[in-house]
Design goal:
Elements: E1 2-6, H1 14-23, E2 28-34, E3 53-55, E4 64-68, H2 72-82, E5 88-95, H3 107-117, E6 121-127, H4 136-150, E7 158-162, E8 170-172, E9 180-188, E10 194-202, H5 211-216, E11 220-225, H6 232-241
Parallel strand pairs: 1-2, 1-5, 2-4, 5-6, 6-7, 8-11
Antiparallel strand pairs: 3-4, 7-11, 9-10
Bound molecules: manganese (II) ion (MN).
């Protein structure tokens, strides 16, 4: 199996090193990741300037690693172009969870989505990062277990995995879609100018069976996702009400 490892935190993140290490147990690994942090870039692609890559001198324990002046989706496009016949793209391990509506902004998940658009399997992995760095050694066996559950499963194409700091099990979940707040928080910069932070946080408690609920209760969350955004229920109703739009 040929595995491309990428992320949105940039090639120097400890999370991508941890993921590349585990990925080696599943196949041949190559790392292609952004040269700087690209968090919250979503599924942006670079269409107005050229992309370049450079071999990264940092050690990935014998794995070839390349840094790209682009987004996570760019890295998947360029990486799988240069390294043909990639089977699966692993993205992460993101320093910060990608749960519920955070999926709309996530560059980590976008890399996995880009893999699926190209006909490959895409798996995103994330873990909360607070004041201290995540303990990737402690997470390592759980990353391996979660990947074991999905990487060879032909029924799954796009998978979102979130790991709590000290897991006590693994659960299949659905995306939490409870309302969240996209909030602008003003502040004053050192020059005395007003500036703004755009932050997001959940408005309501997570419901059972969801990704947020699992992680809040100490479980690794595995959510199978799809790219088709069609609201089938609303489409059916609209067709019933007005089969031909006039
Ligand atoms: Mn990130």
């Amino acid at each position: 199996m040929r595995i491309l490892v990428t992320n949105d935190d940039g090639i120097y993140s400890p999370g991508i090193m941890a993921l590349a290490k585990v990925a080696q147990r599943f196949g041949e690994v190559q790392v292609v990741a952004p040269d700087v942090e690209q968090s919250s870039m979503g599924h942006a692609i670079t269409a107005t300037r050229p992309l370049y890559y450079k071999k990264s001198p940092i050690t990935f324990e014998g794995i070839d690693a390349y840094r790209v002046n682009g987004t996570p989706a760019d890295c998947v496009a360029l990486g799988t172009h240069l390294w043909a016949k990639t089977d699966v793209v692993l993205s992460g391990i993101n320093m910060g969870p990608n749960l519920g509506n955070a999926m709309w902004h996530s560059g980590t998940l976008a890399a996995a989505k880009q893999a699926v658009l190209f006909g490959m399997k895409g798996i995103a992995l994330s873990t909360p990062a607070g004041k201290t760095e995540p303990d990737f050694d402690q997470l390592e066996p759980w990353v391996e277990k979660a990947l074991n559950a999905v990487i060879n499963n032909k029924d799954l194409s796009l998978i979102n995995i979130n790991l709590p700091p000290d897991p006590r099990g693994i659960q299949w979940t659905r995306q939490s879609v409870r309302l969240y707040d996209g909030k602008i928080v003003p502040g004053i910069d050192p020059m005395g100018r007003k500036h703004y932070w755009f932050t997001v946080f959940p408005l309501e408690a997570a419901e059972e069976g969801t990704d947020r609920y699992a992680v809040e209760n100490g479980y690794v969350s595995i959510t199978p996702l799809r790219l088709d955004l069609t609201n089938e229920a609303e489409l059916t109703k609209a067709l019933q009400k007005q089969p031909i739009v006039s």
